[in-house]
Amino acid sequence: MASTTCGWCDRLANMTAVADASELRGTTSMYQVTAMRPYRCDYCRGISVAVMAGDASGASSLEAWFEENDRALTWRPRKVAGKNYPDVPEHIGHTASEAHEVASIDALRAAVVLARAVIEATAKEREVFDGRLYDKIETLFKQGLIREHVRDAAHEIRHLGNDMAHGDFVADVHAEEAEELLVLMDEVLHEVYRSPARVRRRREARLARNEGGDG
């Protein structure tokens, strides 16, 4: 039985086929087939479509091909995976989450462009407005808002993000590359917002305890 993370309910669930598979128009032989089959999520009852592409010559039928290769199915709708960003300003956190969302559906160039936008928005939120993004990142570093390795991470995002923003699409963006850039984006947000907020809450809790006579 096929299983996947359902694009409707976001649960790992068994998927039950509800109809036969059908080939897309234009398929010329059993050696190169693209076919689809509808499935129902056993948890939420939502209907998803599984897509299979490849060599089906060894299968007795399309249905058997799907059942024998259920781990190779591509599902529609796909699970869209964003992230929560506590302590990050809402407009920046939403954009960072959107970068993860589009990366999860393989819109990798869009993910890179959004990651670059997050870095620029972070600088502006910290009232760093002058110059190009390079200058803004350097100012964040000089003001002590980010450490050296985080500055370097921001520049890596800037480099690839500039290529995408300027229409230089000759080279593909690989999934591993986009994932790494999003990790670096999260490092910048952690440095500028989340780590200082965590320290501030710890200090406030200590002061409140001392005022209560426990110090």
Structure described in brief:
By secondary structure, this protein is α+β, with helices and mostly antiparallel strands. It is built from six helices and six strands.
How would you portray this structure in words?
This protein is of the alpha+beta class. The chain has two domains: 2-76, no CATH class; 90-209, Four Helix Bundle (Hemerythrin (Met), subunit A). It is built from six helices and six strands; from the N terminus they run E-E-E-E-E-H-E-H-H-H-H-H. A hairpin with a 5-residue loop joins strand 4 (33-41) and strand 5. The mean pLDDT is 89.
Would you tell me the overall average pLDDT?
89
Q: What oligomeric assembly is this protein in?
A: single chain
Radius of gyration: 24 Å
Give me the CATH fold name of the largest domain.
Answer: Four Helix Bundle (Hemerythrin (Met), subunit A)
What class would the helix/strand composition place it in? alpha+beta
Shape: elongated
Keywords:
6 helices, Four Helix Bundle (Hemerythrin (Met), subunit A), 6-stranded antiparallel sheet, alpha+beta, about 50% helix, 2 domains, about 220 residues
Give a topology summary.
Elements (H helix, E strand, L loop, with lengths): L1 E4 L6 E6 L4 E2 L9 E9 L5 E8 L7 H7 L5 E3 L13 H15 L3 H18 L7 H10 L5 H18 L9 H37 L4
Antiparallel strand pairs: 1-2, 2-4, 3-4, 4-5, 5-6
